[in-house]
Amino acid sequence: MARVRYNSSDVDLMARMMRAEAEGEGQLGMLFVGNVIVNRAVADCLDFADLRSIDDVIFHVQGGNYSFEAVQKGNVFYQRAREQERRLAEKNLKSWRQHPAAYALWYFNPYAPCPPTWYGQPFSGQFKDHCFYEPQAGTCDSVYMG
């Protein structure tokens, strides 16, 4: 059973986002970004309570800006998704999760060492240049169930 409902255009959109955000970090890096996208779609808490689709997550606006830099800067649309990224996106949508992004709702590249918290959320781990953050215990249990 899929973690979130999706169709072929969701797979394509998610694949383009994964490529735009983490192509330089290889397949595993793209899968970690995919974890965050799917986690936000299943999380029923915090800033993500009203997000239920891949489209909702990708085009989510927080503080007047798109949540993902690739949408904000527009580079999510510069490259078409290749079959490889589509397979990775579908793998995330179906069930794939792995530490440090298994339950992460946030990631960023600090261009420095990862801080122990980010906007009050605890550091869950790092992969290459990206730092991943899970919700504080008890603030978003739905991400651990979905």
UniProtKB/TrEMBL annotation:
InterPro entries: Cell_wall_hydrolase_SleB, SleB_dom1
Residue intervals of the Cell wall hydrolase SleB domain: 24-133
GO terms for MF: hydrolase activity
Protein's name according to its UniProt entry: N-acetylmuramoyl-L-alanine amidase
